[in-house]
Write a structure and sequence with these properties.
With 312 residues, this protein is α/β, with parallel strands linked by helices. The protein is 39% helix and 20% strand. Strands 3, 4, 5, 6, 9, 10, 11 and 12 form an eight-stranded mixed sheet that branches. Strands 1-2 form a two-stranded antiparallel ribbon. The protein has a two-stranded parallel ribbon with strand order 7-8.
Amino acid sequence: MDLDAVRTFVAAADAGQLQVAAGALSITQQAVSKRVAALERDLDVRLFTRTPRGVQLTVDGQAFLPHARELLRVADRADASVRPGRRALRVDVHSRRTAPAVLLQDFHRTHPRIELDVVTLDADVHAAIAAVEAGTVDATFHAVAVPARQLPAAIRTARVIDEHHELLVGPRHALADARAVTPAQLAEHRIWMPGMAAGTEWASYYDELAAAFGLTIDRAGPVFGNEALLAEIAESPDLATLAGERTRYLWPDSYDLRRVPVRDPAPVYPMSLIWRDDNRHPGLTTLCDHLAARRADAPDTEVWTPTRYEAR
């Protein structure tokens, strides 16, 4: 169905005069008459009757009018869904608890007029890059371990997050009252991170961290969720886990959990924003600028980063 003809029909129905409808649409009255006549032929009904005062809807015209309005609303939504700046900026994060989601929330607060759609594809870096390349999402956050020569030509990356670590322990743990701990001190303690799947970029990162500092990272045990993990740590004098400094956890006050910074050197999990360089969504440029401005300055302590990640 010719949407221009439908739009002309609605304008004429609202105005009650073809001349007024022509002015609203910036076309001639003759063009309005031709469009309405073509729509009537297409539908095989009369939509208007002519009167001395203008035009009046027939019974068929009255029946068609609400559907015509809906057609135009759907067309506008379809247009907005793909037109840069009119659709939501769609960004993938691995978890809504971690640093990328926290920074996206800060971005939304700073730029509330940019509509944002935060999704969790739960994909590895290769699948996430494929989603960006296909246009399923506008951008994603990952620790990039793919050589630049293996990235698709249109894909760009920029290192935007250096996430420092904190040790999360209960009140009876030996390090509960420490102001900071070193990786060397952690070598004497069990770090419990159940359910971390082997072969993921997160597991690879922690494998390299453990090898570098002689840490014991225990992945054993079923996964009952973060709430159960925090409850176990709160009650144990031995269990501890690692969390990003911006990772959001909530627990009852009675747990009295402690977040202790890891320093000298401070392990850093580097994350990059990944996007297509031909994506013209204006919100994407604003997001890149926002993240670049929010990236921390040079730390006041020595840092450790994994050697296998190329973060650009």
